[in-house]
Amino acid sequence: MASGVYGKVDVSSASTWTQVVAASSTVKVVTLNIVNRQSSATTVRVALRDAAGNVTDADCIEYDVALVANGVLERTGIVLDANNGLHVYASAAVSAVAYGIDS
């Protein structure tokens, strides 16, 4: 059973979704931390995505969540099957780190 960091990204643009964890051939249990590096509040979205890389509003597990200045959003227990990846969208620059275990 593998474990560790699956992805670390700088989400710096509000124009696109950014992949944090790619779809793979294993089931993963993931913890996601999103850190607001700004001195003002921002909003973030977190979504599961299919193997083709598509993300719609229906895929969101967090949507326009207010993240205070220099704050952290931690989401634990995200189970990704072999067809799902994890994407983040933010209205300002944030860091996103995903880590966990394969089962």
Question: What labels describe this entry?
Answer:
four-stranded antiparallel β-sheet, 60% strand, single chain, mainly beta, Jelly Rolls, 103 residues, 8 strands
Give an overview in words:
The protein is mainly β. The chain has a single domain (3-102), classed as Jelly Rolls. Helices cover 0% and strands 60% of the residues. The chain is built from no helices and 8 strands. The strands form 2 sheets. Strands 1-8-3-6 form a 4-stranded antiparallel beta sheet, with no helix packed on it. It has a 4-stranded antiparallel beta sheet with strand order 2-7-4-5, with no helix packed on it. The N and C termini lie close together (6 Å). The model has no long low-confidence stretch (mean pLDDT 89).
Compact overview of the structure:
The protein has 103 residues and is mostly beta strands. It has strands at 3-11, 18-21, 28-36, 42-49, 60-67, 72-80, 85-90, 94-102.
Layout of helices and strands:
Layout: E1 3-11, E2 18-21, E3 28-36, E4 42-49, E5 60-67, E6 72-80, E7 85-90, E8 94-102
Q: What name is given to the CATH topology?
A: Jelly Rolls
**Helical amount:** under 10%
Query: How many domains, in number, for the residues?
Result: 1
Overall pLDDT metric: 89
SSE arrangement, N to C? EEEEEEEE
